[in-house]
Write a structure and sequence with these properties.
Layout: H1 13-16, H2 23-43, H3 46-72, H4 80-97, H5 103-121, H6 131-150, E1 163-164, E2 168-170, E3 173-176, H7 182-205, H8 207-217, H9 219-224, H10 229-256, E4 258-259, H11 266-279, H12 284-307, H13 314-335, H14 340-353
Antiparallel strand pairs: 1-4, 2-3
Helix pairs in contact: 2-7, 3-7, 3-8, 3-10, 3-11, 3-12, 4-5, 4-6, 4-10, 5-10, 7-10, 8-10, 11-12, 12-13
Length: 358
C-alpha cells in the first residue's frame, strides 16, 4: 500500500495539526510547487505563461475567495466580478496617485478596500439568504460597474475609459508594465497565490472556518451554540472580497496590463461561480481544479480541429466549442455533483487500499 495512514503517529501538537498529515501529500504538494517555480518558467513559452498559466492562477485565487463565502459559509454571491473590479481600480488609483509605494503594498491595500466594499454589501445577509442574497450581490455587480463608468475620478478622467497598469519595479526588477517579462509576472503571481492559498487553508481549519461551516449547515443551530451570525457572515464577505479584490488587482497589473469595466462584467462572476461548483464547494483544492477546467478546456477545444486536421468555419467551430464545453460541465456535475475535488478524494481512498480490492 503506497498511500496509507496506518502506522503514522503524531508525537507533538504541531504534527497533529499539520495541513498535510500524510507524508505522501506533503511530498506531492512540495513537488508541484517546486515544478511550478523552477520547471514551468523554463519549458513554457510566452504564450503559455501569458494566456494560460497567469490567468489560471488569478482565477484560482478568485475562486478561493468565492469558495470561502459560498462553499464554507454557504452565502451565495453573484458579485465576484464587481469585487475584482474594486481591487483593479483601487490599485490603479493608488499607483497613479502615490507612485513611490511598493506594488505589493498596493495589492494588499486594494484587497482591503475590496473587503470594505464586500462588508457593506454583506450587511443584508443577516435578513436574507439563498437566492435572495444572490440577487442582492447581483445588484452590487451592476451598481459598482455603473459607478466606475459614470464617475471619471476612478479612471483619472481618462477619455478612453481604460485603466492601464503603470510600470513598477521591485528590487530593480520590472514587475508590472509593458517591459515586465512574462516569466517575472508569472512568478510574482505564483508567489502571491501560494501564500494566500495556504492562508485560506489554515483559515478554514481554525475557529473562524468552523464557525462558517456551522452557519452553512444550519444557522439557527449555530446561533444556539453561541456563534454570532452577523459578525461571522460579514467576516466571510470581507475575507472573500479581499481575495477577489486581490485577484482583480493582479488581473489588471500582472495579466491584462489594461482593462475596462467590461472585463469585470457579470460573465466573469458566473465564470468564477462555475469554477467553484465544478471544482467542489468547500474545497481549496477544488478551486484550483475548477479554475484549471474552465481555463484549459476551452483552449484545448479551440485547438482540437487543427490537431486532427479538421477544416471548418470559425463561427461553426466556436459554436461547437461552446456546446462541447457546456456538455462537459453537465457531464461532470452528473458524474460527481460534489466536484472534481471529490473525484480526487475517491482516488486517494482507492490508493489507500491498493493493491487489495476491498
Amino acid at each position: 500500500m503506497i498511500y496509507r495512514e496506518t502506522g503514522r503517529f503524531s508525537s507533538t501538537y504541531a504534527q497533529d495539526q499539520a495541513i498535510f498529515t500524510i507524508i505522501q501529500d506533503r511530498w506531492f504538494v512540495l513537488l508541484v510547487i517546486v515544478a511550478a517555480i523552477f520547471v514551468v518558467p523554463v519549458i513554457a513559452n510566452e504564450y503559455w505563461l501569458q494566456a494560460v498559466m497567469i490567468p489560471f492562477l488569478i482565477f484560482s485565487l478568485a475562486a478561493i475567495g468565492l469558495n470561502l463565502l459560498t462553499g464554507y459559509c454557504g452565502q451565495l454571491s453573484l458579485g465576484t466580478g464587481a469585487f475584482m473590479a474594486v481591487g483593479g481600480y483601487a490599485t490603479y488609483k493608488i499607483t497613479t496617485n502615490i507612485p513611490d509605494i511598493n506594488i505589493f503594498v498596493v495589492f494588499i491595500l486594494a484587497g482591503l478596500i475590496a473587503a470594505a466594499v464586500g462588508l457593506l454589501f454583506g450587511l443584508p445577509s443577516l435578513r436574507i439568504k439563498g437566492f435572495y442574497l444572490a440577487v442582492a450581490t447581483l445588484a452590487a455587480q451592476f451598481f459598482i460597474l455603473w459607478l466606475f463608468n459614470k464617475v471619471g475620478w476612478f479612471i483619472n478622467d481618462n477619455p478612453s475609459g481604460t485603466i492601464t497598469a503603470p510600470p513598477r519595479e521591485v528590487f530593480g526588477i520590472m514587475v508590472t508594465g509593458p517591459r515586465a517579462t512574462a516569466e517575472t509576472r508569472y512568478l510574482v503571481t505564483l508567489g502571491i497565490v501560494i501564500v494566500f492559498a495556504f492562508a485560506a487553508k489554515n483559515l478554514v481549519r481554525g475557529r473562524l472556518g468552523r464557525s462558517w461551516m456551522a452557519i452553512r449547515d444550519m444557522d439557527v443551530a449555530a446561533e444556539i451554540i453561541g456563534i454570532r451570525p452577523l459578525p461571522t457572515k460579514l467576516m466571510a464577505f470581507a475575507i472573500s472580497s479581499f481575495y477577489c479584490g486581490l485577484a482583480g488587482a493582479m488581473m489588471v497589473f500582472l495579466w491584462l496590463g489594461s482593462a475596462e469595466t467590461e472585463a469585470f462584467d457579470i460573465f466573469l462572476s458566473f465564470q468564477i461561480l462555475f469554477m467553484v461548483i465544478i471544482g467542489g464547494l468547500g474545497s481549496i483544492l477544488g478551486s484550483f481544479l475548477g479554475a484549471a477546467f474552465i481555463t484549459l478546456v476551452p483552449i484545448f477545444l479551440t485547438n482540437a480541429p487543427a490537431m486532427f486536421n479538421v477544416q471548418m468555419a470559425t463561427d461553426i467551430a466556436k459554436h461547437i466549442e461552446e456546446i462541447i464545453f457546456g456538455g462537459l460541465i453537465v457531464f461532470f456535475l452528473i458524474v460527481e455533483p460534489n466536484g472534481l475535488a471529490r473525484l480526487w478524494q475517491i482516488v486517494k481512498e482507492k490508493l489507500r487500499r491498493w493493491p487489495f480490492p476491498y
